[in-house]
Amino acid sequence: MFRFLSGALHLTFQGLASSVECDSQHFPVDNRCCAKCPRGSKMHLHGVIFLRFLAHCLPCPPGTYTEFSNYLDRCLLCERCSEDHGMEERRTCLPNQNRRCRCMKGFFLEPPQVPGRDADMCYRHQQCQPGEGVLKEGTRRSDTSCAPCAMGMFSQGGNHTCQVWTE
Description:
- With 167 residues, the protein is mainly beta.
- It folds into 3 domains: 2-60 and 69-74, Tumor Necrosis Factor Receptor, subunit A, domain 2 (Ribbon); 83-124, Ribbon (Tumor Necrosis Factor Receptor, subunit A, domain 2); 132-164, no CATH class.
- The chain is built from 1 helix and 16 strands.
- It is rod-shaped.
């Protein structure tokens, strides 16, 4: 008898069809709207909702996040900023926001491959060759532009502009 009552007090997500429409803070289960967990948290009981249709949520552990209200059973891993790829942290990872990365000084980003991400991989700014000077200094979003020095000017290359030749 206790097993039957215990089973009656819980509903699972799986296999329950629903035709009810819910607002953005709820999700449908068995023709009822159940509360989602707030951003920065996850559903504690995977696949189980108590008969009262209230979510039992836990905060995301360090290094994980959820940016929106949800019914996930685990938080998402925060992005890593790889120094090996010329990246540094621009925004820290918090329970309610993903870490954001940007290019370190001396590196630039080509358009990201994943929409919404600031950086997939950053590339070191090119160094001008001897006889070339910096036409446009590189930024975090663009590479350095080099151009040959004009007659009567010189540059040893690197990240220097062309200088007037003096005797």
